[in-house]
Amino acid sequence: MFKKSLKIFIITLAATLLLGLAFTYKFWFPYVSSDSFVIGNSSEDNIASSLDNLPDDSALNNSSDASDDNGLIKPIYESIPTPTPEPFEEYDVTVMAVGDNLLHMGIVNSGRQADGSYNYDFLFEDILPYLDKSDISIINQETIMAGNDKAFSGFPYFNSPTEVADGIEKAGFNVVLQSSNHTIDQGLDGLLNAYNVWQQHSNVLMVGIHDDPSKEHDIPIKEVEGIKVAILNYAYGPNLGAIPSNVKGYMNILCAVKEGSKTNELDFTKLDPAVIDDIKRADQLADIVIVCPHWGTEYALEPSSYQKNFAKQMTEAGADVIIGAHPHVPEPVELIEADNGNKCLCYYSLGNYVSTGQQGESMLEGLAWVSLHVTENDVYVDEGKSGVLPLVNQYLSGPLRYEGTYALEDYTDELASKHGIRGWGGVTLTVDKLKGWSQQIFGEWAITKDFILNQ
Question: Does the global pTM surpass 0.70?
Answer without folding.
Answer: yes
